[in-house]
Structures are given as C-alpha cells and as structure tokens.
TrEMBL record:
GO annotation, biological process: protein lipoylation
Keyword Ligase: yes
Protein name (Swiss-Prot/TrEMBL): lipoate--protein ligase
The protein's annotated pathway: Protein modification; protein lipoylation via exogenous pathway; protein N(6)-(lipoyl)lysine from lipoate: step 1/2; Protein modification; protein lipoylation via exogenous pathway; protein N(6)-(lipoyl)lysine from lipoate: step 2/2
PROSITE patterns membership: BPL_LPL_CATALYTIC
Enzyme class: ligase
GO molecular function: ATP binding; lipoate-protein ligase activity; lipoyltransferase activity
C-alpha cells in the first residue's frame, strides 16, 4: 500500500486530516498513514464530551480534546502512542467487517515477531492485555479504519485524563488499567526504539518498501487546514454536540453502551440524540429525520432501524436492544 504523511502532532489537524481524506481522497486502491498526536483525548462521535474527561486535569496538563468522525469510546493519545489509518474502497457499508480490516495491522505486528491476537469487538491484545483499539467510518464508497498502537503510553496520564475521579481512587484505577492494558515496548527487544517500530510497520505495509508516498497537493493541504480551523479545533464541535433533552435513558449491551435523549411532544419525537461508545459503521444522523414526528414507542423505533439494517448505524447492538431503550428501563 502507498502511504500518506500527516502533518506533525497537532490532534486537531490530524483528526481533520483523517476526516477530510475519508470524504475527499477517493483512492482507487487502499492507502494508509502512521501518525502521532501530542497529548490529547479523542472523543467518539456519539459521546458526551463532558462525561468522558477530567476537565480540570485536561486544562492543567494542556491536553487537546477532539471529537472524531467515527464511533467507539474516548481514547488517550500521547507520543508513546502510534496511530494508524487505512482508507479502503468498499462498495457498501453492509460489507464492512471489523476483523477483516484489523487484519493488516495484525499481520504487520506478527511480521515483527509480536504475538498479537484479535479480541473482543475491535481490539488487539498481547498476553491478554489490550494494545490496540480500532474504529471505523464509512462514507461515499470508502471506509476509514483507524486505531491506536500503545508503544509506551503514560498509563497514569491516561487514567487521569479519561476519568473524573477522586484522587484517592487514582492509584487503584491505574493498577486496574495496567492489568488490562499493555505497552508493546514491553514485548519486544529492549534495544528497539519507537522510530524503529514505526519504520518497520511502514516497511511491511508498503510491500517491503516497494510502494511509495501518496502526495497531497498544496490546495488539498490548505483545505484540510480549513477543516481543522472551522470544525475540529472549535468548542462547538468538540463540546457543543452534547445537548440536554427531556427524556433520557442508558443501557449497556454486548455491542457497546448507548444513551438516548429525546424531546417528546404530543406523544411524538420532536428531537433525538444518541451518544455512547457503540461502533456504528455509518453516522446514525443520516437517518435522524426518520425518527422525527414518529410515535415514541419501541415498536416504531425497531421498525425504523429494520428499514436501515444494512447501515450498521449502531454496530453490534441489535434493533430490539435499541428499541428497549425507549421503554425507560435502562440497564448496566
């Protein structure tokens, strides 16, 4: 595969670049990028930012907060973390399968002698510890599959940034996360550096160096910067997309957690919002209008979702599970 070089470690720019390339690059064959962010929390598109971050720690530590275009949960990035993105032509969103698109990174790690295993909805693990999480977004015949590789991430900073917790619980939380999350550095020859790791991944993914760089034009780069400045670096995008509604419910399913907020008038839905870490392949807002002015009842919700089954708007969460949210009976 050919590769694209991202522009530095500014998270606003890199998330803007991911999104711009998904909607505008339109490559004939798959391309990829390996990139890094300085300290940042990347929020899933459907999440409530205020509920995901430790705001005081974020402010004190100069950590960027950016909402991405894909679903899933909030993740912490730093310079001990390697990000990867694949842009792949895919005819229909119904063809998207997570394991299929995690496979290239799985194969790359194994080529370096790293015994990674596929696990859960979208993870890679080593020795039972998560070292990579992945998310996807489909648009206009193309899939963006992106994820993280934890090389030597600051676990304590991760815990503090992502959890609004009392100080007395931080130590226990760090121990808990360290028991579940691993750093790849601990599983390779200790002489290997992060740069060595990145270069080795690039060498494998470019067909042992035979495939070159995909160069972007000055006009394309300028448009990406405009996306950064006008959307991904703004409060409205990163924080403002968390409205309050009259009806709220929460449930956690095998396919992820979901919160629903809705404004109801005369028994019909006037406004609706879904947040959570569900791994929708497509943006549920594409069908938002189909919920409006419809009866507020589970059967109606199930019917709407059945009509859009191929979109995989809520990932592995079933239509019946989604409909159950509208009974008012949440579950954890």
């Amino acid at each position: 595969m050919r590769f694209i070089n991202y522009l530095g470690t500014d998270a606003y720019m890199n998330i803007a670049m991911d999104s711009w390339l998904l909607y505008n690059l339109k490559p004939r064959e798959p391309v990829f990028a390996l990139w890094q962010n300085k300290r940042a929390v990347i929020i899933g598109q459907n999440q409530n930012t205020f509920g995901e971050i430790n705001h005081d720690y974020i402010e004190q530590s100069d950590i960027q907060v950016v909402r991405r275009m894909s679903g899933g949960g909030a993740v912490y990035h730093d310079l001990g973390n390697v990000c990867f993105t694949f842009f792949v032509p895919v005819e229909q969103s119904g063809q998207v399968n997570f394991k299929q698109f995690v496979q290239p990174m799985y194969d790359a790690l194994h080529s370096l002698g790293i015994d990674a295993q596929l696990s859960g909805r979208n993870d890679l693990e080593i020795d039972g510890k998560k070292v990579s999480g992945n998310a996807q977004r489909y648009a206009g015949g193309y899939l963006m599959h992106h994820g993280t590789l934890l090389w030597d991430t600051d676990v304590e900073a991760m815990v503090r940034a992502l959890n609004v917790a009392d100080e007395k619980f931080i130590s226990k939380a760090v121990k808990s996360v360290r028991a579940r999350v691993g750093n790849i550095k601990d599983y390779v020859d200790q002489s290997q550096t992060l740069d060595d790791f990145i270069n080795a991944l690039k060498y494998y993914l470019t067909n042992k160096g035979q495939d070159g760089e995909y160069h972007l034009s000055d006009a394309q780069l300028a448009d990406i910067k405009r996306w950064r400045d006008e959307r991904f670096a703004t409060w409205d995008w990163n924080y403002g997309r968390s409205p309050t509604f009259d009806f709220e419910n929460h449930a956690k399913f095998q396919g992820g957690s979901v919160d629903v907020q809705a404004n109801i008038a005369h028994g019909k839905i006037q406004a609706i919002n879904f947040t959570g870490d569900f791994l929708g392949v497509r943006d549920w807002r594409e069908i938002e209008k189909d919920f409006l002015d419809q009866p507020f009842e589970p059967q109606t919700i199930a019917k709407i979702l059945t009509n859009h089954q191929d979109g995989q708007y809520f990932g592995g969460i079933t239509n019946d599970e989604m409909a159950s949210l509208f009974t008012g009976d949440g579950n954890d």
